[in-house]
Structure formats: structure tokens, C-alpha cells
Design goal:
CATH topology of the largest domain: Serum Albumin, Chain A, Domain 1
Number of strands: 15
Oligomer: single chain
Shape: globular
Helix content: 25-40%
Number of domains: 2
CATH class of the largest domain: Mainly Alpha
CATH superfamily of the largest domain: Gamma-glutamyltranspeptidase, large (L) subunit, C-terminal domain
Distance between the termini: 28 Å
Strand content: 5-15%
CATH architecture of the largest domain: Orthogonal Bundle
Amino acid sequence: MDALTHGAKAAAVPGTVAGLYLAWKRWGALPWKTLVEPAYRLAYEGIVVSHDLHFALSQGKVSMGQFLSSVEVYMRPDGNAFQPGERLVQRDLSWSLKQVAEHGADAFYKGELAERIVKAFQADGGLITMEDFAAYRVKERKNISTRYRDYQVYSMPPVSAGGLTLLQMLNLLGEFDVGSMGAGSVQSVHLLAEVMKRAAANRRTWLGDPDFVEVPIDAFISPETGKSMAQTIDMNQAADVKVVEPWPLGKTESHDTTHYSVMDAQGNAVSNTYTLGHSFGNSWVAKGTGILFDNQMRNYSYRDGADHPNALVPGKRMLSTMTPTIVLDPEGEVFLVTGTPGGSYIINVILQIIVNVIDHDMNIAEATHRPRMYQGWRWPQLGLEPGFSPEVISALNAMGHQTRIERTMGSVQSIVWKDGRFHGAADPRRPNAAARGLMYPPQVRLKAVAGGE
């Protein structure tokens, strides 16, 4: 198996615990232990395995089967996946979560739990040390935003590539009357595909960790850049992906992620995306902790030379496509909180949610259910979910697109606040997502900003 995908070498230092702890210290109202306690009790008592979890465990059996520590947690004694209705108990994970509940983030990065984690890494050939864990710091960055129609769209800045790419695509679309084209029409799908090609070329060329490389943020989301790039789009002919080049802006992803969107009774809003990378991350559990780790080391650019903005450098954060997003309405109030898992699909999926809601005036449920499309850079095929009409597909092929029906894209979790009501939508494309609402609407309207790293 590829060492960048499975096993201890594939993991980077996790940031979720530190990030959540900082958010709690700054904005939390309940005691930290109160928030974490349900998680460690659930791990201790066990969860009932659903059909979907059984399927996922069965799919992960080969990769996790390489590591005894993973098999001991996620497989039955006979080596097979737990069956639907059986209980999956995780006592080591419960202990780990209890350490975090009682001692905060320091337990994960400096305490006995950290020592167990590092001991497991070193026993299985990993590279992470106690010094690496102790040195981890949350990186706070200024949000990025652009104006789309009469709405202000906020998203995550680099080191995620998602926000900049999303905002650049919105700037391009702002040069066209998208609403008049009709959702799912030949014109609208063609335009979206052409916009996606161009933005993907820029994403792959210019973006990296701004602590290590110069990222042309202002040029990337400048309305003038969007206007100039839009002029290269031929509305009657698909551009050959082989000749679409990055725009001169400066000096020369598996699909298994998690997202949640939240608004509370005070009107505060959170859009949070986080990930282990692949399903079950690197497939490796740190023995004695119950913790399954990520495989984010694979997200550096290894084939593009040492001078690539996303090249591996010690202490450098790798690019991701995470795109947690918050949209403010024309009055400056929180209107839409959204995000999705989906690896390379993420950015394009969020673009389509925004277009569906703002340009096509859909409610959030309809916007979520509409069939989706995906176009990358240097990838000749235009991916379409089932649901596009045969006439549209035929016309797209005649324009030079190479269409292909693909599996579902993303799993968007969204909240819209409109006309004094919450409107929530949990994407049906993946199981076990849900939308739950407050009994009472927000009493105070606060402007919120998307973020996370």
C-alpha cells in the first residue's frame, strides 16, 4: 500500500482538537467538559452499527486489515466487519476523549494521551514526535469575501484553496445573466463548466501556504480578474482543457470529509469542514488511544517540483479543497450557511448551491436536491450526476464537452435564514445526515464569518 495513503507515515499533526478548543475559549458558553462528555460516554457505551456503517467497515476491511490496532477496534474477533444491529464499543477512544474533556487541548498535544500517540507512531514507523505535537498552533487568518449580485460571500482563506477558487468563479459568473439561462439548461451547464476549468487551472498553479509562499489573494478574487477571464469564454464552444492555461496572477482530494453548519439562538453562525482525508483516514489507529488518524501528507504536491507553492516543507500546511461558506444578504445579515465534503468536488458543489439559491431563486432543499456537475483542469470529461435531460447532454457533447455520468457529488449541509424562519437542508446523497431546528428563532442578528483549518 502507498505509504502516503495508509499507515503511520501518512498522517500529519491533527488540528481539530486545538481548533475546536480555541473556538470554545473565545465564544463558548457551556463548560468544555459538558461539551465533550457525551462523546466519550457514547464511545464507552458503544453505538449500534447501522447498515451504512456496516457497508463502510466492509469497504475498509482491506486497508484497515493491515494494522492490528485498527482491526482490534473496527472488526469483530473473526476479522469481519460488525453486522447491522451489533454494538461497536471503543473504550480506548473513550479514555482519550475523557482526557481531552478533563484537561483541554493540552491533553492531546502534550499530556499522557500525546505520549501514547507518539509511542504508537514510533512503534509503527511514523515520523511524528512529541516536539511536533507540542509545537502545533492554530493558525488564525483573515476571511476572504466577494460581492455576488447583492450578496456578500465569505469563505475560508488559504491554506485551503476552496475559498479563493469559489470566489473567483463567482466573479466570473457575475459577468453573465445566469438566472435567465435556467437551471440545468445547456447554456448554464456550459457556462459553469467553462468557469470551473479556468478557476481550477489557477487553483493548481498559484495556491499554497501563505506563511511559506506568496499567494496572490487580491488578484485572485479581484473583480477585474473575473471580468478579464470571463471574456475568454465562448458561449457556443467548449474550450479544450489541454489549452486552458492559468491566468497570470502573480510570480511564477478521496471524497470523504465531514461538514456541519450551525446557527444558534443568538444568531451566531458556524460553517465548519474537517477531514481525515480518505474514508477511515490512513486506516491506522494509534494503539491504546482508539484514535484513527488522517492521511493528509498525500495532499502536498510531490510531482510538480520543489518550487511549487504546495511543495512539502517542514512546518508547512498542505492545500485542501475545504470550502466552508457564509453568505450575507443585502442588509448584511446572515442568509446562508453551507459547506460539503467531497474532495475535489467540494468547490464546484458549493458554487452550484449559491447559484441555485441566488440566481435561480430556489429554496435550500430544492437547491440541494438538484443534479450537479463537475469540471476540472486537464481533465477532459464533464462529470454529470444522473438527472440531466438527454437533450441537454446531447447538446453539450455537440459543443465539444465530453460528458460522463458520475456518482453523486458531495453532501451539502445548509441553513438559510429568510423571512424570520430557519430553512435547513441535509443532503440525501449520503446517509445519516439530518437538519434539526430551534424551537425559537434567533433573538439577536450577528454577522458571522466562515473559517476553519
